[in-house]
Amino acid sequence: MKDKMLKYLLTSFLMLLLPGQVFSENSQFLHPLRISAGGLYSKIHVNGSIDENSEPSLYERNRNLSLEGEWKVMDYLSIGGGGGRTKYESSGNAPITQTDRWFGAIKFARETGNQSNGTLIGAGVKVFDRMIGQSPRYNAAPDLYIVRPNLAFGYRWNGLEILTELAIQSETNTSFREEPRQEFQRHYQAGLSLAYRISDNVNLYLEMEYREPYEKSITPWNRFWNVYPGFAWKPYGNGMISASFLVPIRMESTSWDHGLKLGYYHFF
Questions:
Q1: 188 with 170: CB under 8 angstroms?
Q2: Structural domains present in the chain
Q3: Which H helix or E strand runs over 8?
Q4: Looking at the DSSP assignment, which residues form a beta bridge with residue 64?
Q5: Do 203 and 30 meet the contact criterion of CB atoms below 8 Å apart?
Q6: Are 14 and 22 a contacting pair, CB within 8 Å?
Q7: What does the pLDDT look like over 144-184, one tens digit per residue?
Q8: Which of 217, 219, 233 is nearest to 188 (CA)?
Q9: Of 235, 228, 244, 243, which Cα lies nearest the Cα of 267?
Q10: Per-residue pLDDT tens for 191-225?
């Protein structure tokens, strides 16, 4: 009886939110290619990426395919989720294929302005499920969840757009507190996206991400500073194809030497 009542309440809630998706428009800001989007969208997003690292004694390659969806349920609110698969290869070892952590997300954003100029402020949180198996490259705890809150600020003026992101990511458990002799891995991350509309169908991007671990003795590998030049092309009204390249600025022992990310977006 309780299960039927819960399903009924959930269905009723989603039906109440449905009109908001039908009559709400997507953000007027261009969707970034690497950092988290600050605006609200109704979209399906497919990504394929490959990253490589070459050292005298080790060669690594990481290939990933992911799917993400977002649904703008109200003027200032969207929900989403996604997941993917990763294939990791390193010299002298057999390839490892693994399912990525699935995640759910909720995001709030407010935009002001007109077609040419405007501002954006947003906030959201992503919650990642426990990992299936052990990471072949990083010392991550597979039995812990991950929580990632973030803030976003944007400004657009004519064809130029600036979007910034500040985020904190932490491992956690169901009680949201560390047990004795347990230390959660945490890091801070800042992102910047510069986008320029060349035409109605072509956009240029220059993005950057910087990550710093909260405690270097716990997560010495979780640090990087990358720049991502890229572009996006709209072959038709609601679709977008993108490509961005990984260029490391600060090289760490676990940094990728180079990478390529291809994406397809369909907006509703």
A1: no
A2: 2-267 (2.40.160.40)
A3: helix 2-23
A4: 49, 86
A5: yes
A6: no
A7: 999 999 999 999 999 999 999 999 999 998 887 877 666 88
A8: 219
A9: 235
A10: 999 999 999 999 999 999 999 988 777 776 678 89
